Amino acid sequence: MGDVLGSVQPAEEFALTPADVPRGGARLEAIFREHYPRIVGLLARLTGDRGQAEEIAADVFSKLAGRPLLLQDRDDCTPWMYRVATNAGLDAIRSNSRRRRREEEAQAAMLRSGVESDALNEMLRQERRARVQAVLAALKPRDAQLLLLRANGLAYRELAQTLGIQPGSVGTLLARAEAEFERKFRARYGDDV
Amino acid sequence: MKECWSEGELRAYIDRELPEEDIHRVAAHLEECSQCGDLWAELAGRADRVSALMQVLAAPELVVGAPRKRLPPAVPAWRWAGVAAALAAAAMIGIALLPKHAPPIAMAPPEPPAVVPSAPAPTQPHNAVTLAAARPSKAGSPRRNTRPAAPGLQGDGPFLALDDDPIESGVVWRVELGPREVPAEVIVDSDGRPRAIRLVNFKPNH
User: Fold this and answer.
1) What's the confidence (pLDDT) of residue B102?
2) What is the ipTM of this complex?
3) Set of chain A residues whose Cβ sits within 8 Å of the Cβ of B57
4) Angle of helix A141-151 relative to helix A156-163, nearest 10 degrees?
């Protein structure tokens, strides 16, 4: 065999393995594999930006890696992860608002020029998305988490486990979160719910 | 016998998240109790409206997966390289047995068509190639790389596909075959499998 012109180094080559990470690495890896897709999905739904969602999710797991005591108790670290991720996502929404305004102004200018016929629908969709994000950002984090995770398809049992709440109280908390969401939405944007 | 159901229980009923027997009991109760019926209608309507709004957030590209767990390779990469080397050696012997004027393309099986490298994108590293299957009608005149080949990638003929699967992308490995150390290039895909091979500067009559 001779020279290798290129090497194959798929991403999984860099996966954490018990042999090359300190104690707790295997646990972190297991948690990562179980929750990373779901957290990215939640954040992508929240921020509307998958790249940003992945960055935030990576930051969450980076923080988790620095908390070995939290890692030892899976029941504690799961709600912690979702709480941190949701809060970071809500912060991202707020910081994105300026950029979003610029984009909306650009789209409005494009509409005025009559260049894009589909731009109106896209602008309306983005406006609706921005409204939902704004209302979510105004909710209590747990209410926002509940709505986002439920919209992501989590069952009540999973919601209870993820958020660290009693399974029997999920229905009550969900109903209240929905009521609060609708109330805030109507207060901001009228009856256009 | 339960009189009325709580808001949370009715909300769980809407999502069919109650035990099966409770679902039947709630359904029977709702037919009799207008107060619970009104509450159920209010909760169900709100749940629909909120759900519709939450769907606005959904984006088509949101499905993500965790990076795949590192799996122990079924066959180590060096063994694939060994297989490739064996196949290349067989191809080399075949070429050697052909008449001198026979073009190398004759080695390519008629089905599937020979696979040739296309021009690499400007942003690609020099050792990454993107492959496109040649059209059957052009099998005799495969598309050539019109850009100057990077050092180490200059080959004599088209790559010989080692299986029928299309090759999306791969990495070219320079290998040496047999005791004569015949230089060859092997395209290895992201799974470490050799997918195509060609000899480099091979002269069968030497």
Assistant:
1) 42
2) 0.71
3) 45-46, 48, 129, 132-133, 148, 151
4) 140
